[in-house]
Amino acid sequence: MQHPSIVGWSHSKFGRAAEPGLEQLIATVVPDALMHAGVGTQDIDGVFVGVYNNGFSPQAFEASLVGMAIPELANVPALHCENACATGSAALYAAADFIAAGRGNIALVVGAEKMSSTPTPTAGDIMLSACYRSEEGDVDGGFAGIFCQIAQRYFHEHGDRSLELAMISAKNHAHGMLNPYAHMQKEFSADYCNTVSEKNPLVAGGPLRRTDCSLISDGAAAIVLVHPDIAHSMKRSIRFKARNQANDVLALSRRDPIEFAGARNAWAKSFAESGIELSDLDVVETHDCFTIAELLEYEAMGLAERGKGGDVIRDGITTRDGILPVNPSGGLKSRGHPLGATGVSQHVMAAMQLAGEAGEMQLPDVNLAGVFNMGGASVANYVSILERAR
Questions:
Q1: Which secondary-structure segment (H or E) carries 23?
Q2: Most CB within 10 Å of its CB: which of 145, 167, 268, 311?
Q3: Alpha carbons 23 and 16: distance in angstroms, whole number
Q4: Spans in the chain with pLDDT lower than 70
Q5: pLDDT at 60
Q6: Residue 47 is part of which domain span?
Q7: 348 domain residue, yes or no
Q8: Closest by CA position to 183, among listed 334, 351, 71
Q9: Structural domain count of the chain
Q10: What is residue 187's predicted lDDT score, i.e. its pLDDT?
Q11: Is residue 20 situated within a structural domain?
């Protein structure tokens, strides 16, 4: 399969947005993405929109909102995708398939979510729709409670790793200080993150603390994808060297919840397709919705054996100056996690590094980047390998 190239993008500031809804959030990123790519609305063959929603907004039929925000796109075929926290990647992959199938040469991908106007208890219940409700719908603390259970299981089998989780949180907050798009540009020490306090309480009975959890955020991101035959004519080209999705069983009771087997499978498929190894990557943007998720992803991608993920952060492997920087954007933990925007945002952050356009976040000599985005507790898993073509 010939993979498309990313040739332009735009990213809003994540956090509590002044824009009242999705239509206005979309309007903040689409014109800038088209300008960055050097294309016009008349060049777009298809629009792909990632919005989770499920109750965050009474307005559904989100694919149509791009045409409302940008009237010149109102008659372009548009599709809405939803795949839990991997909604943005689902939209991006659908656009890539659209181009690979010969349906069009240029596609616009938009990921967006407006979450902050929803009361926190309601937001927690909405997000539980991404778990197996018949067994997990009454878990205390919503999705934080789900990941607390995962952390409890991991600690039971491999020992208390609270300090290592705190180190992951501190790392990502330090990285986020350099990201102008980040929701929380505030540095925390590992000691602070590892100490239960009034400002950093246990969530859902623990062992995770508030600093182990990503933020409820608003935001949007957009990407322009083009067919490889025309990528050479663009100002920049970030090429997909591989892209794969692997799924696992939804119910935690029917699988090993601390293996992240779907993530491991998605990484293995992308390494096999691209012909590279983990050691070839220069940077990874991964899905740290909770710090325990990033630790488990270290093991799934092959940085550590099972049960040894804590060694990765202890050894400094994933810091900015480590062997393999992970989440130099601050990750979901600091950058924020507007559900539908996250997968698109992660690809933008990786593309910025590859294009040398990451500003203060820029790492030296970035030629190959990995992106991991997951839906649910590692149920829908997306791994992209991106390379700098020009």
A1: helix 22-37
A2: 167
A3: 16
A4: 390
A5: 95
A6: 5-118+217-231
A7: no
A8: 334
A9: 1
A10: 94
A11: yes
Q: For residue 102, how many other CB atoms are within 10 A of its CB?
A: 8
Tally of CB atoms within 10 A around 336? 29
Specify if 21 maps to a domain. yes
Cβ neighbours for 254, distance < 8 A, ≥ 6 positions apart: none
Here the tokens at position 176 are 């986020």
Gap between the Cα atoms of 65 and 298, Å rounded: 37
Whether 89 and 147 have beta carbons less than 8 Å apart is answered as no
- For residues 147 and 290, give the distance between their C-alpha atoms in angstroms, rounded to a whole number: 7
Residues in Cβ contact with 178 at an 8 Å cutoff, skipping those fewer than 6 apart: 328, 330, 359, 360, 361
Quickly list H helices, 281-336: 291-301, 309-314, 331-335
DSSP β-bridge partners for residue 247 = 380
CA dist., res. 119 & res. 217, Å (int): 12
pLDDT of residue 141: 85
Q: Are 88 and 148 within 8 A, CB to CB?
A: no
What is the CATH classification number for the domain harbouring 112?
3.40.47.10
Going through 92-153 in order, the beta strands assigned E by DSSP cover 106-113
C-beta separation of 245 from 226 below 8 A = no
Dihedral pair phi/psi, residue 286, rounded to 5°: -125, 170
